[in-house]
Specification:
It comes from Candidatus Endobugula sertula. With 301 residues, this protein is of the alpha/beta class. The chain is built from eleven helices and 16 strands.
């Protein structure tokens, strides 16, 4: 992912760069600009996926840069890292399409919480569910696994023993965000046949189940409510492993994981699916020694 840092202070450019580098992503490309005018010239050629901009800069300030991007319809994600504290101006930026506003001085945790949803494509799964062109299947065509089968699939690694049990249906609670959201379909058709939802505690358990992640790292992720790169990658792999136990009885094929991202706010399409009952869903509690228990749900869409 290409990220452009825009600030007239070279010291602040360095601080923001260090904060981004601490996320541990190997494929990040970073460039810097000292004002909105220079940034706009770089953006037109380099096409970054994310711009982190100061507000108050010479020649062209941050809000002017955002409005210029909107006029040229460049479709670039932009967030502000700024001393600007006026509620009216912050709302102006959000209304104009800013993804977030992080106020200086800031700690890396705050910066990471703002940037991670974009790095991890948090809106992709939600946009797919909300897309009216995406078809949903008939529930009697999809077979969900039994509790025992799901348990065996989650326990493929000798590194950790995951215990699961059936629990009451999951509902999304504002104080529990973010949730991990996975969408399953088939390889040939633009359709969503099933979804998987895990709260953050469950996502951390799934993340450590494949190894390469310490229990301490999982504790920190649970406390800070933010998943580092390695845990997120492990979660995607675990959700991919579940493909083999999700079966389309009409097409006689297993489902395929289309995408898996973090969901950071309520979503009407997800909440509609969470109203399903009976055999159309499987809700389980996920437990492992040393970590807080989590909730995991599979639902036919």
């Amino acid at each position: 992912m290409r990220i452009l840092i825009v600030d007239d202070s070279r010291a602040m450019q360095t601080i923001v760069r260090r904060g981004i580098e601490q996320l541990g992503y190997d494929n990040l490309e970073l460039k810097k600009a000292e004002n909105g005018k220079d940034a706009l010239n770089i953006i037109r050629v380099w096409e970054p996926e994310l711009v982190l901009s100061d507000w108050h800069m010479p020649e062209m300030n941050g809000i002017e840069l955002l409005k210029a991007l909107n006029r040229e319809m460049l479709g670039i994600n932009i967030g502000f890292v700024t001393t600007e504290s006026s509620d009216a101006r912050i709302q102006e930026a959000l209304d104009a399409g800013a993804q977030f506003v992080v106020q200086k001085p800031f700690d890396f945790k705050t910066l990471h919480e703002a940037v991670l949803p974009i790095l991890q494509g948090s809106s992709e799964s939600e946009q797919t569910l909300n897309d009216p062109q995406v078809k949903h299947t008939h529930s009697d065509h999809i077979l969900l696994p039994s509790l025992e089968t799901l348990g065996r699939t989650l326990n493929q690694s000798p590194n950790i023993e995951i215990q699961i049990k059936k629990i009451s249906p999951l509902t999304l609670k504002d104080k529990q965000f973010p949730y991990l959201l996975g969408l399953y379909g088939d390889a040939k058709h633009k359709a969503v046949h099933a979804i998987a939802i895990a709260d953050l505690n469950a996502a951390c358990i799934l993340g450590v189940s494949l190894g390469y992640v310490s229990e301490e790292s999982a504790h920190i992720a649970q406390a800070e409510r933010a998943l580092p790169k390695i845990i997120m990658e492990n979660c995607r792999q675990v959700l991919k492993n579940i493909e083999v136990i999700l079966f389309n009885n009409e097409r006689k094929t297993h489902l395929t994981l289309r995408n898996a991202n973090l969901m950071r706010k309520q979503n009407d399409s997800v909440n509609k699916l969470l109203k399903k009952e009976g055999d159309e869903r499987l809700d389980v509690g996920i437990m492992v020694d040393g970590l807080e228990a989590g909730r995991f749900t599979l639902i036919i869409s």
